[in-house]
Amino acid sequence: MPLFAFEGLRPQVHAQAFVAPTATLVGDVIVEAGASIWYGAVIRADYAPVIVRAGANVQENAVIHGPPGLTTDIGRGVTVAHNCVVHGAILEEECLVANGSVVLDGATIGPRSLVAAGSVVAAGSRIPGGMLVAGVPATVKRPVQGTGAETWVQVNPGAYAELAQRHKNGVEYLGD
Predict the structure, then answer these.
(1) DSSP conformational letter for 23
(2) Which residues, at least 6 apart from 162, have a Cβ–Cβ distance to it below 8 Å?
(3) Is residue 176 part of a domain?
(4) What is the pTM of this model?
(5) Rounded to 5 degrees, what angle do the CA atoms 91, 120, 36 make?
(6) What φ, ψ does residue 71 adopt, rounded to 5°?
(7) 41, 24 in Cβ contact below 8 A?
(8) N or C: fewer beta carbons within 10 Å in the chain?
(9) How many domains does the structure of the chain reveal?
């Protein structure tokens, strides 16, 4: 896996985390136990720290970064799905940011909320826990509870933790 120090700041990856061999981590990145960083994801922490908490998953081609002074915090059990951008935001426990979404500077996504695919959460937004948000800009639509989205929020953390262990133990590079 490509890990790069930047101006003395080095990524710290827990031994029980999975970082795919094509993911890239630069600078002040912390990846906690049980977290997973998937193929093609880029986490660049040159201006400010990025923390990927225990059990979180950052999926393929996601980009995580932040501006000076804003720590980006990917909370416990959070899912940052395929092709997302999270920039200087706080994602609280077990929220799900669906495919192709963007979460901008200073935004906070509450626990067990779901940001619908393709949404853009504006800078400084505060999304309460347990809500489904969608649109450009994203707005609160309704509670997640009782919708199909609730299943994704509940199942994704465990499913990706199990899949990460399978990849950690079972992926084999076959060459170019």
Answers:
(1) -
(2) none
(3) no
(4) 0.96
(5) 40
(6) -65, 135
(7) yes
(8) C
(9) 1
For residue 121, the SS3 value is strand
**Dist CA 19 CA 56 (whole Å):** 12
> Does 175 reside within a domain?
no
Alpha helix (H) residue ranges in 26-82: none
Measure Cα distances from 85 to 29, 80, 117, 163, 168 in Å: 16, 8, 12, 22, 24
Does the residue 96 lie in any domain? yes
pLDDT tens string 23-33: 999 999 999 99
Domain that holds residue 128: 3-170
CB 126 within 8 A of CB 109: no
Q: What are the tens digits of pLDDT across the range 36-91?
A: 999 999 999 999 999 999 999 999 999 999 999 999 999 999 999 999 999 999 99
Q: Summarize the confidence of residues 120-140 as an average pLDDT.
A: 98
Q: Mapping DSSP to helix (H, G, I), strand (E, B) and coil, where does residue 156 land?
A: helix
Tell whether the model's pLDDT for residue 173 goes beyond 90.
no
